[in-house]
Specification:
2 domains, mainly alpha, elongated
Length: about 120
């Protein structure tokens, strides 16, 4: 029964990692890629680490797995946010179909929100 549970967690984690790698290739712009890759890889790595912790079934392994999962859960979204913010500052283009209405309303955008034309692409107002 333990092998089935461990296999389930590891294979589900691998499936999420596969989805993340396909997302890098298939998605249209940088910001959507960063979002999907961050979420899918965090979940995938977390599930695989749970499987590893169950497989070894020792206190040391479980503590290491818990520490690794907490570290990944805390750092991955923050790193993705910083990378996306830096991409926004250097004006990496958005996908043409991206709805930028909330982005335009933000006060700390690199573009002036009053201008209808953006360096990012088409704006929907």
């Amino acid at each position: 029964m333990l092998e089935i549970t461990v296999s389930f967690f590891i294979l589900t984690g691998v499936l999420f990692m596969l989805i993340a790698s396909i997302g890098i290739i298939r998605l249209p712009d940088f910001y959507i890629r960063v979002s999907v890759v961050t979420k899918a890889s965090t979940i995938g790595l977390g599930l695989m680490m749970i499987g590893v912790g169950l497989f070894f079934n020792t206190i040391e392994a479980v503590v290491k797995v818990i520490v690794i999962v907490i570290f990944i859960i805390l750092t991955s979204p923050i790193a993705a946010h910083v990378i996306a913010k830096a991409a926004s500052q250097i004006k990496v283009a958005f996908w043409d179909k991206t709805d930028l209405t909330d982005y335009i309303k933000a006060k700390d955008t690199p573009d002036d929100p009053k201008i209808n034309q953006s360096k990012y692409g088409k704006r929907r107002t």
